[in-house]
Structure formats: C-alpha cells, structure tokens
C-alpha cells in the first residue's frame, strides 16, 4: 500500500504508509500540465491518473514499481497525456469493465475517454449514444482540439536539473 499526493508544481509524490517518500514523478510533456487537481487509480493499482488545472489528464503505469519499489530498474512509465477540458479537472475515475476514464471539470462538463489511448467518446447529456466499442474512429471534443500524446517507451521523465555553476557574463565573447 502507498499514498499518493498531487502538487501545484505538477509533481506527484508516492509515500509509504510510514511517511517515507518513495518516488517523485514529474510529467514528460512539451507543455506543462499545470498544478495537479485530481488523482485516481484503477482497482488493481496498476494505473495512476492525474488531472490538472489546465485540463490535462496524464496516465502512468505503476505496476512494476509497486511489485518491487527497491529495484531501481522498475520505473514508473508515463504512457499517455491528453487535454480533456479547457478548464480545471476537478474529478476523474477509471471504469475498468468498459475501459473508460470519466472526467469532470469546473466548466460543468463530464466526459468519457478511452482509458488506454485518451480518445474522446463524448460527454454526458449528448444526443447520440456512446459508442465504446469503436476506438479506431478518433473524434475531438468541441473546445479542445489537441490529439492525445502517446509517450514512447524510451522517453525519460522530466527531472529537476541541478545547476553546478551559475551563469556568468563573459565580456570577451
């Protein structure tokens, strides 16, 4: 068992039940996701999802890390990131049986997404029925027109870089 905390710096911290910091996660993304506002896992705690103030959803695979957190090779892998809402995500959960993620925003909308790819299925209150079996047809929601970013296996998470030497003015150059 572990505890997860989301922070304004876009960082997620994983803690042991004794209060020891086990891991610090930063998203791998070209665009910063902004302060994190919501967290959830699937019932088997293999997937960790985070929602942000900027409307992004980030998905990590944490299964191998939880099997043996002492092994440094068992890294947490960010798998996909997508823009779910134009405003802050206030809640989200995974419905494993249908393989969907449900997100809610301060704009009052509740939307459905494919859990593995971040593809948009629709919103609650729409006239048409949800088509959850067809994941090949990519549709975009009306207010967000960014495609989900699939994170490649070799991508590294953003790390806090420590500067060894401060920048100095070289008047000769």
Automatic annotation (TrEMBL):
WD repeats: 82-113
Pfam family, one: Beta-prop_IP5PC_F
Gene3D superfamilies assigned to the protein according to its UniProt record, in alphabetical order: YVTN repeat-like/Quinoprotein amine dehydrogenase
Signal peptide: none
InterPro entries named in the record: Beta-prop_IP5PC_F, WD-EF-hand_domain, WD40/YVTN_repeat-like_dom_sf, WD40_repeat_dom_sf, WD40_rpt
SMART domains in alphabetical order: WD40
Domain IP5PC-F beta-propeller: 27-114
Sorted UniProt keywords: Repeat, WD repeat
The protein's name: WDR64 protein
Organism per entry: Lanius ludovicianus (Loggerhead shrike)
Gene: Wdr64_1
């Amino acid at each position: 068992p572990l505890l997860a905390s989301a922070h304004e710096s876009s960082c997620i911290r994983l803690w042991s039940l004794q209060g020891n910091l086990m891991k610090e996660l930063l998203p791998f993304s070209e665009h910063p996701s902004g302060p994190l506002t919501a967290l959830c896992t699937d019932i088997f705690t293999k997937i960790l999802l985070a929602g942000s103030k900027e409307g992004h959803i980030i998905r990590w695979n944490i299964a191998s890390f939880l099997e043996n957190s002492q092994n440094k090779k068992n890294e947490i892998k960010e798998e996909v990131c997508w823009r779910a809402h134009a405003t802050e995500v206030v809640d989200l959960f995974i419905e494993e049986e249908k393989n969907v993620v449900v997100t809610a925003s301060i704009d009052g909308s509740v939307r459905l997404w494919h859990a593995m790819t971040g593809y948009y299925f629709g919103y609650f209150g729409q006239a048409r029925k949800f088509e959850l079996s067809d994941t090949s047809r990519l549709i975009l929601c009306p207010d967000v027109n960014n495609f989900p970013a699939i994170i490649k296996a070799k991508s590294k998470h953003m790390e806090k870089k420590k500067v060894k030497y401060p920048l100095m003015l070289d008047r000769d150059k």
